Amino acid sequence: MNYKEAGVDIALGNQFVRSLISNTSYPPEVISGIGGFCSLYRLPDTSILLAASCDGVGTKLKLAQQFKELGYLKTIGIDLVAMVVNDLITSGARPLFFLDYLSLSDITKQTDELEDIIFGIKKGCQEAGICLIGGETAEHPRKLYLGDLDVAGFGVGLVEEDNVLGPDRVREGDILLGIVSSGVHSNGFSLIRSLFPEVIRLGQNQQLLSSLMAPTIIYVKDLLEVYSVFKTSIHAAAHITGEGLEHNISRVVPDELIPIIDWDSFATPLLFLALQELGQIETSELRRVFNCGIGFVLVVDSVYASAISRTLQRLGQFTVVIGSVQKKSA
Fold first, then answer.
1. Beta strands of 1-148 (E only): which ranges?
2. CA distance 156 to 99
3. Residues 105, 141: contact at Cβ < 8 Å?
4. How far apart are CA 317 and CA 218, in angstroms?
């Protein structure tokens, strides 16, 4: 089975984004717009940039609803915050605040679900060191099926222009330093759910369900500390979400270079191997859809890679060198 058969067409989605980029013009204040992990906007007459991002949690929310009696709706808000703030931190920005959008079919029947989700959002904001300052709750009784709901999150951060991470800093020979994930995080759940046509089959395997629903790690506080110590030695950062390692790292590497991943440098966690076996998923598709155990990647100066790794591990983040940046072959 593959992602397209599960209903998600990655190629078509990328084509849509490319069309948006080609048909959008920006004022000079916009440093980066559509297509990046976050967008950057320069405040007038300053060197301060606003970083902005929005995201959701995909159909992981459906599983959280199906097994809400196990408390997963209380952690889905952590995922929501993580998906936004982990994108912001790829630019080097310090996240400031968060807003949410909750859409549901009938608030009178879904109040408990909303309270659980907001509980998780507040906890996620606390983990990220930011505040929830507002949002929107929209009731759509004849638009959504009874019981349906969806969530989205929006975040804003600040970064000095001289401290922005990205392709301009990346050099040949830079090291790819991977930071481990807590599991699948919040991507690939349309494929995961297609592997379980009967909800009871998943419900009977509590260990697998618990592993799948583990909240996305919020890397913000630890990364901000590392950024402050190794200001010029960290060149770029990638949040490993949809399309896996190769695609997301490529987004922060200049066109003339390429990230080379050593897939033998780390062991694919058993959770992903179990999904692969269950769905008879090709290895290439597994790597294209899931993070395969690496939730975030720093592109760093090779001289300082070991020191950066030791600092992250002291903070509780397990790291592994997963490859390097090389010139593209002719």
1. 30-32, 39-42, 48-55, 94-104, 131-139
2. 9
3. yes
4. 11
Counting DSSP H helices and E strands in the chain, the numbers are: 12, 11
Q: Note the helical H segments in 56-188.
A: 60-66, 76-89, 107-128
Residue entry with tokens 């717009």: 33
Closest residue by Cα to residue 148 from 96, 109, 92: 109
Tens-level pLDDT at each residue, the chain (330 residues) = 565 555 555 565 556 556 655 556 667 787 876 668 999 999 999 999 999 999 999 999 999 998 899 999 999 999 999 999 999 999 999 999 999 999 988 888 889 999 999 999 999 999 999 999 999 998 877 665 566 889 999 999 999 999 999 999 999 999 999 999 999 999 999 898 888 764 445 556 778 889 999 999 999 999 999 999 998 999 999 999 988 999 999 999 999 999 999 999 999 999 999 889 888 999 999 999 999 999 999 999 999 999 999 999 999 999 999 999 999 886
pTM: 0.90
